[in-house]
Amino acid sequence: MVTEHPRTNRHDEIETIVKAKDGGVTETRDEADKYTVVGAAQRRTFANWVTPIEEHFVCHRNDIPAIESDEWTVTLTGHAEEDLTMADIKTKYPTVAVAHTMECAGNGRGQHRPETGSVQWGFEAAATAVWTGVPISSILRKHSIDSPENRWLTTIGGDPSDEEDVFARSIPLTKALDDCILAYEMNGEPLPREHGYPVRLIVPGWYGVNNVKWVEELMITDSMVTEGSLDRPGEHAYWQQVAYRLHPKGVKPEPLENIDTVDTWEQLEDAVEHPYTFDANVMSIIGVPDGASPVTPRTDGTLEVRGVAWAGDDAIERVEISVDGGETWVDAELFGPEYAGAWRLFRYDWAPEAGQHVLLSRATDELNRRQPRTISNPDVWRDALERDEFPWNEGGYAANAVEPNAVEITVLEREEPTPSG
Fold first, then answer.
1. DSSP state, 115?
2. Is the omega angle on the peptide bond into residue 233 within 30 degrees of 0, that is, cis?
3. Where is 177: in which H helix or E strand?
4. How far apart are the C-alpha atoms of 30 and 28, rounded to whole Å?
5. In angstroms, rounded to a whole number, what is the distance separating the alpha carbons of residues 413 and 136?
6. What share of the chain is helix, strand, coil (3-state, %, to 5)?
7. 352 lies in some domain
8. Is the distance from CB of 105 to CB of 398 less than 8 angstroms?
9. Are 200 and 183 a contacting pair, CB within 8 Å?
10. pTM above 0.85?
11. Could you tell me the CA-to-CA distances from 112 to 115, 116, 397 in Å, in that order?
């Protein structure tokens, strides 16, 4: 069984990443002292549609592999067999760019009370980048794989583990053929090492754990990865069947080969007993004002409240703003680019009184699913969503509650200009 042991070189790696990103990110507390984790350093990151690489969060458990791009290959196995070099990937297939809001499945873990273990994220583990690469569909259709037929794409990362586990994740072949890519560029630049250089899987709108870095193998399988299903030594199924699943405290999830829905929210509504983290839940963050310093209204007496909202595979239908700690709500305006799998910008022009204010945002998706107000206590499970709460779960996954992401601001009086004469 995989255990979490401290990794001695973790802090050196974090320091290097923070330095390279020039202050755009900051280290996040990791109870196991095992993960390399940095998140957006400023709330203002969530006021823009594209997240600069310097502000994009990083999370991985194993060491970054030492890779030379011209020596790296991606092996196709299962119902297809081929070794793809990076030259093959870049020159033999179409090139596309996709916008993708990537959110760590553990985003919001640090908002659980009592705390769960591992990385204590607030809201800083989410970002939107434009990824360039090759459609998975183009690669698989070369091998006459153009129908999902209830199959899965299992992606294996090439990052070395100091345990006896393999980082493998399975996604439905329907999703892989729809919009997934093997990416080798991020925001128009070569993929940085900490983001998966030389190639990673991008699964638009799905939690970050599905977006496997340092892709080494793509396997077409008839089920999700289970223990012993890979032709290699070590533990195979931990990252699919144990970690990154939602369950109450003290429960060991049963491994499943197939499920009827990959929608995380739908699974929580009783479709799957212990849900998997695939499609991201509806979520929003206010980016400005950021609460870091007092603000003064514009000459017309208003302040702009601006932020981002996302809902995985589903579209954002509505964003509401509260400027009084959740007592009342008004609709914000959605604006800017609208791409499947990427967040929407929202704004609201507010005429505030001077003083202290607590600002909240809550988003609703096209299926009329709205962010719950709080995270439940550990005694509540299936009934949490009906009580306007997100269910506390032992892994701290998929949280999207409104109140923990509030921003407290101070509004100053606007000085009236002195009449001349």
1. P
2. no
3. helix 173-179
4. 6
5. 55
6. 15, 30, 50
7. yes
8. yes
9. yes
10. yes
11. 5, 7, 10
Give the CA dihedral 406, 22, 212, 118, nearest 10 degrees: -50
Contacts of 55 (CB under 8 A, 6+ apart): 21, 24, 25, 40, 41, 42, 45, 127
Q: Is 18 exposed, middle or buried (0-12, 13-18, 19+ CB in 10 A)?
A: middle
Region for residue 141 given its phi and psi (left: phi exceeds 0; alpha: psi -120 to 50; beta: otherwise): alpha
pLDDT single digits (tens) 367-385: 999 999 999 999 999 899 9
Is residue 83 classed exposed, middle or buried when 0-12, 13-18 and 19+ CB atoms within 10 A define those classes? exposed
129 closest CA partner among 211, 188, 209: 188
Asked if residue 221 is part of any domain, the answer here is no
CATH number for the domain that contains residue 386: 2.60.40.650
Measured CA to CA, the distance from residue 312 to residue 118 in angstroms comes to: 24
For residue 139, give the amino acid letter. Answer: I
Cα–Cα distance, 55 to 10 (Å, whole number)? 19
State the sign of the Cα–Cα–Cα–Cα dihedral 153, 100, 16, 116.
negative
Count of domains observed in the chain: 1
Contact 216, 227 (CB under 8 A): no
Listing DSSP states for 2-53 in one string gives ------TTHHHHHHHHHHHTTTSEEE--BTTS-SEEEEESSGGGGGSSSPPG
Q: Which residue, among 360, 376, 299, 366, has the nearest Cα to 327 in the 3D structure?
A: 360
For residue 86, give the H/E element and its range.
Answer: helix 86-91
- Whether omega for the bond prior to residue 289 falls within 30 degrees of 0, making it cis, is yes
Residue written as token pair 């659980």? 112
- Reading the block at residue 257, the tokens are 């080969």
Query: Is residue 333 domain-resident?
Result: yes
For residue 309, tell me if it sits in a domain: yes
CA distance 11 to 36: 8
Range of the domain at 366: 283-411
- Tell me what the pLDDT averaged over the chain comes to: 95
Show the tokens assigned to 194: 């900490």
pLDDT tens per residue, range 27-50? 999 988 999 999 999 999 999 999
